[in-house]
Specification:
It is built from 3 helices and 7 strands, in the order E-H-E-E-E-E-E-H-H-E. It is of the alpha+beta class and 185 residues long. A hairpin with a 2-residue loop joins strand 4 and strand 5 (100-118). The longest helix has 15 residues, at 155-169. The relative contact order is 0.22. Bound molecules: zinc ion. Residues 97-99, 139, 143 line the site of zinc ion.
Length: 185
Amino acid sequence: MILPILAYGDPILRKKGIDITPEYPGLSALIENMWETMYEASGVGLAAPQVGKAINLFIIDTGAFGETEEATGEKRVFINAKILEESGEKWDYEEGCLSIPHIRENVNRHSNLVIEYQDEFFKTHTATYNGLAARVIQHEYDHCIGVLFVDHISQLKKRLIKNKLINISKGGARVDYKMRIPNGR
Ligand code: ZN
């Protein structure tokens, strides 16, 4: 089932996602629906808060970047993730977000990270990522702590896109996927 994606301005996008247990109601259906929703919207990652669930869960599939040295097509479910360490050179990459359509801005982040997480079977893993996979994880992880990529850009750039953000929150952005506007239906 395709779920509506929350638009910028929705307070749920600002909540810190809580850790969950295998007993979380409807978890496997939620994960399945998140995959369907992400692919329908041509995304490479989706976090549960974006579909209205303030929990620590996100999915990524970097396959759309193609198989390069930077992106090896990582497809994975991350539950109760904690980034333990970020390191390496900081680099700029133009990020976008399904909750913030038609805005892309360079965000400066570390190139490497170590993350501890549980998979969909609640098995715990510790993994190292770099390049584009690390980038997508950092972006989605941020969603689970109530942070959006536009929080990382300069005040000047934020002022320049302020009206666009207001427009998105009012339902003015045209997208070819299902969106939910704050206080709307
Ligand atoms: Zn996003």
